[in-house]
Design a protein that fits this description.
335 residues, alpha/beta, TIM Barrel, 6-stranded parallel β-sheet, binds iron/sulfur cluster
Length: 335
């Protein structure tokens, strides 16, 4: 039987419970593994004797490996390529991950292991779930991973965790009950249903009007601002009329809009980058006419394909088709 990640919280809790081992040992094991990533189970101190054979027979300290660590010349961005790729089934037309198709879901342990790998390089304060698949399509593992990240020994603040979604309506509703106070980012990318469906096929199942009603409800209950991601595609969704439509759609919400200049990679992309003037004009309309806080995403890590799915696609077959943007400033906004 394949060994599971020791960070698969429900698995290890169940195994410990069945063996009569107190679950308060679990965070101690995690802490030891974080500090000693290549440890053998026998080296973990002070566990009940029955815990050692159980760990050996069922769990591994890590089920993923860091394939490469690439620093950008911007000197602040580092991308880890972790061997786990699972793709995404949402098929957004501008996204490199979407072009990979869907292979598998991550387990909660595999999600947490990414944080463990990253924490070996730097102290991690913010976590954003986005870019390599739709988090809410893997709901149970996502919720479990967030609970692990906010508990001992990680102790990340929920205020510093953001989940980004294309707008899976039923899951947004559920998330609010399961983890109140989580930051929500919505990849809106268009102010009207027609354009959304054109560039995000999954939007057909989640009509814009119903999505906005769900977000209104979410905001009413959570009293938190919502982050809106909007990728700027030349001639598709970046005209002045689109800015006005978006402004009207969002003016009664507490939102921060993040305009993402499209970052083309590869030659197959059928989208082009909006000019700087267009992006700035778009921002001006949202800010000036509708008083909506609007930022333009920083272009960090471009030289290392720092955007959604790019690194994997670049490394694997050099045939990528585009990207949803970079990960660096949703977390800045949520501070
Ligand atoms: S943008 Fe997000 S949801 Fe869309 S295909 Fe890419 S990873 Fe999936």
């Amino acid at each position: 039987m394949a060994l599971r990640s020791v960070f698969d919280a429900s698995q290890i809790r169940t195994e410990f419970e069945n063996a009569g081992i107190n679950s308060h040992f679990i965070p101690l094991i995690w802490k030891y593994v974080i500090q000693n990533p290549n440890c053998e189970w026998d080296e973990v101190p002070s566990l009940p004797s029955s815990a050692y054979p159980l760990l050996r027979s069922k769990f591994k300290p890590s089920t993923s490996t860091v394939h490469s660590v690439i620093d950008s010349s911007d000197e602040v961005t580092t991308k880890l390529l972790i061997k786990l790729q699972v793709g995404c089934k949402m098929g957004c037309k501008f996204c490199a991950t979407g072009s990979m198709g869907f292979k598998n879901n991550l387990s909660s342990g595999e999600i947490v292991e990414q944080l463990v790998h990253a924490s070996h390089l730097s102290q991690i304060r913010n976590v954003v779930f986005m870019g390599m698949g739709e988090p809410l399509n893997n709901y149970t593992a996502l919720v479990e991973a967030i609970r692990v990240m906010t508990g001992s020994p990680f102790r990340l603040s929920l205020k510093r965790i953001t989940v980004s979604t294309v707008g899976i309506i039923h899951a947004i509703k559920k998330l609010q009950n399961d983890i109140p106070n989580l930051n929500l980012a919505v990849s809106l990318h268009a102010p009207v249903q027609d354009i959304r469906c054109q560039i995000m096929p999954a939007a057909r199942a989640f009509p814009l009007e119903r999505l906005m009603d769900t977000l209104r409800e979410y905001q009413k209950n959570s009293q938190q601002k919502i982050f809106i991601e909007y990728i700027m595609l030349d001639g598709v969704n970046d005209e002045e009329q689109h800015a006005h439509q978006l402004g009207k759609l969002l003016e009664t919400f507490e939102v921060v809009v993040n305009l993402i200049p499209f970052n083309p990679i590869g030659t197959l992309s059928h989208f082009s980058t909006s000019s700087e003037q267009k992006v700035t004009k778009f921002q001006k309309i949202l800010r000036g006419t509708y008083s909506i806080r609007t930022t333009i995403r920083k272009q960090m890590g471009q030289d290392i394909s720092g955007a959604c799915g790019q690194l994997v696609v670049n490394q694997s077959d050099k045939r990528s088709t585009g990207s949803a943007g970079l990960l660096t400033d949703i977390e800045d906004l949520s501070l």
